[in-house]
């Protein structure tokens, strides 16, 4: 009779431990992009900038991300595994030669992100004129 008393308690303990040990292994990346003319001072946020993470051809598809920054110059992505990945950001900015002539000036910035399990890592990228 004592066997039947301890069996449900043992099963309950195994289930509780199995559920409690499951950890969040997703890795978040939050990329903030700003225009800069000198590489040190951040100016206004770069909206609609193309952000590419994990651009190396040898990377698996789950280690790559691509998208555009929002109105605050922010791009967010969640990865399945931890990794150290490169970041490339490209965009344009209007440049006025005179009152009637405007050209789009290309800007580019690079950085790296080290993804950590269960965390969101923030990286700031300054884009400079090419």
Mean pLDDT: 88
Largest sheet: 7 strands, mixed
| Residue share in helix | 10-25%
- Put simply, the count of helices is 1
Q: Encode the helix/strand succession as letters.
A: HEEEEEEE
CATH superfamily: Immunoglobulins
Describe, in plain words, how this protein is organized in 3D.
- This protein is mainly beta and 130 residues long.
- The protein has one domain: Sandwich (Immunoglobulin-like).
- Helices cover 15% and strands 48% of the residues.
- A 7-stranded mixed β-sheet has the order 3-2-5-6-7-1-4, with no helix packed on it.
Write a brief caption for the model.
The protein is built from 1 helix and 7 strands. It has 130 residues and is mainly beta.
Topology diagram in text:
Layout: H1 2-20, E1 27-35, E2 50-53, E3 65-68, E4 74-79, E5 84-98, E6 101-114, E7 120-129
Parallel strand pairs: 1-7
Antiparallel strand pairs: 1-4, 2-3, 2-5, 5-6, 6-7
Task: Provide tags for this entry.
130 residues; mainly beta; Immunoglobulin-like; 7-stranded mixed β-sheet; elongated
């Amino acid at each position: 009779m004592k066997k039947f008393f301890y069996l449900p308690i043992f099963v309950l303990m195994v289930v509780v431990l199995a559920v409690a040990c499951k950890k969040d292994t997703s890795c978040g990346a939050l990329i903030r992009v700003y225009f800069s003319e000198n590489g040190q001072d951040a100016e206004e946020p770069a909206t609609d900038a193309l952000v590419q993470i994990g651009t190396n051809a040898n990377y698996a598809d789950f280690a790559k991300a691509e998208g555009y920054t929002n109105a605050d110059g922010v791009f967010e992505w969640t990865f399945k595994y931890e990794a150290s990945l490169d970041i490339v950001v490209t965009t344009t900015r209007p440049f006025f030669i005179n009152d009637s002539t405007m050209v789009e000036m290309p800007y580019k910035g690079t950085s790296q992100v080290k993804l950590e399990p269960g965390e969101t890592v923030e990286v700031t990228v300054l884009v400079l004129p090419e």
